[in-house]
Amino acid sequence: QHRSNFGSSFQVVHCFVLLTGLLSRAMTAGSVSEKLPEVDSLGFIKFLLPFLLGLVFWPAIGLLAARYIYANYKTQLYDKNIASLAEDEGYLYLAAVIFTLLVNWINNYPMLYKTMVMRFASGNLRANMMIYKEAGSKNSNHIVLDTEGPIGSYNRANRSLTHFTENSLPVVLCIFLAGKVFAFPTLVLTAVFCGGRILHQVGYATIGYGAHAPGFLAASLSAGILQGLCLFVAAK
Fold first, then answer.
1. The whole model's pTM is what?
2. Residue 177 burial by Cβ neighbours in a 10 Å radius (0-12, 13-18, 19+)
3. CA angle, 50 then 53 then 55, to 5°
4. Residue 236 burial (10 A CB sphere; 0-12, 13-18, 19+)
5. Which of 32, 85, 205, 213 is least buried, going by the fewest C-beta atoms within 10 A?
6. Mind listing the pLDDT tens digit for each residue in 147-173?
7. Number of C-alpha atoms within 13 angstroms, CB side, residue 35?
C-alpha cells in the first residue's frame, strides 16, 4: 500500500514538473519587448471566462484533494478532530472559504484590464502593477519599471514580495483552521507553499517573467488544498 501511494505521488509530482516547465516556456516565448502594445478593446471580454473559472478551479481541486486525504489517511483521527469542534464552528471554516474567495476576486479582477493593455507574451512588462504617465504630458509615452540588470531583478523580487502579501492572509487563516483537524497534511502543504513562494521570487528575480510559474503553481495548489480542507470541514 505504501509503495502504491509513493508511486502515485511520484507520478503526480512528475506531471506537475512537466506542466510547470511547459507553462514557463510558453509564458517566456517571444517576451522580449518592453513597449506597451496597442490597447485590446476586447481584452476584458476575452479574459472574463478564465477569470470566473479561476475563482472555482483551485477550491474545486482543493476539495477533491481534501476528500482524498480524508479517505486514504487517518480517517478516524480526522473524524475525532471534527467531532471535537464546537457545534457551530463549521460556520467559521465556511467564513474562511468565503474570505479566500474575496481575496482571489480582488487579486484577479485587475487581470481583466491587464489583458487589455498587455499581452501574455509581454514578458517582464507584466511585472508592472501600475502604468504611469507624466502629468500634463501631451505625448503617449508611459513610465514603466526598469527591467534590465540588477535594477530589474530588484524590481521583480519586490513584485514577488507584493504578490505574497496580496495572497498570504487567507493562507494563514486556513493553516490555523485546517491544522486543527488535518495537522500533518497542513504541515506538508505549508512547506510546499513556502517552497513555492521562494521559487516564485528566485525565478522572477534571476530569470524574469515566466520563470516564476513553477513556484506560482506550487503555492497556488497548496493554498487551494488548504482552502479545500476548510471547505471539507465546513461541509461535514
1. 0.81
2. buried
3. 115
4. middle
5. 32
6. 889 999 999 999 999 999 999 999 999
7. 5
